[in-house]
Amino acid sequence: MATPHIYAGSSPTSTGGKHYCLGLETGIYRSHRFVEHGGAIAGYMAKMLWFPELEWGCVVMHNSYQLAEPIVTWRLVDDFLQTPGEETFDAAGIVGKFFDNAKKETDGAREKLYPIAPRAGEQAVKPALPLEEYQGVYRHLAPMEGGTEDQETLTWDMLSGS
């Protein structure tokens, strides 16, 4: 299950990139082989990371859909490996760049996707009639709980056409 089958692309945490292994990914971090699996669903994220030769691993779970997980995970790894401070993996920097790029990509998205949509402060659809024409008494046609018998009779009369 942890035997590499497919090259999964480059990775800032793995020398030589990562490899897919039937649901798991493997890589090399600071000359140590690791196996990982992560996932997310709205409001929840998790990551399992295991260094088999070191007999050490961690699971990070959190109840938010943010990118705090890689920051926590790789800090735990660097602490375990006793990586000198200047050599630790800068997960926070990578997460920051991810958000900066995502913001750049989405800037102006509304205008690009919906070029004829009204802008903020513009009226989307003008009323067909002057607003005074809409004034009046409006009633819901369904019987109201706690309503009077007359309301119910009026409602059913209106529905039945009598």
Account of the 3D structure:
The chain has 162 residues and is of the alpha+beta class. The protein has a domain at 6-97. The chain contains 4 helices and 6 strands, in the order E-E-E-E-E-E-H-H-H-H. The protein has helices spanning 68-81, 91-106, 109-113, 149-160, and strands spanning 6-11, 14-21, 24-29, 32-41, 44-51, 56-62. Strands 1-2-3-4-5-6 form a 6-stranded antiparallel β-sheet, with helices on one face. Strand 1 and strand 2 (14-21) form a beta hairpin. The radius of gyration is 30 Å and the shape is elongated.
Which SSEs are present, and which pair or pack?
Layout: E1 6-11, E2 14-21, E3 24-29, E4 32-41, E5 44-51, E6 56-62, H1 68-81, H2 91-106, H3 109-113, H4 149-160
Antiparallel strand pairs: 1-2, 2-3, 3-4, 4-5, 5-6
In short:
With 162 residues, the protein is an alpha+beta fold. The protein has helices spanning 68-81, 91-106, 109-113, 149-160; strands spanning 6-11, 14-21, 24-29, 32-41, 44-51, 56-62. Residues 154-158 have low confidence and may be disordered.
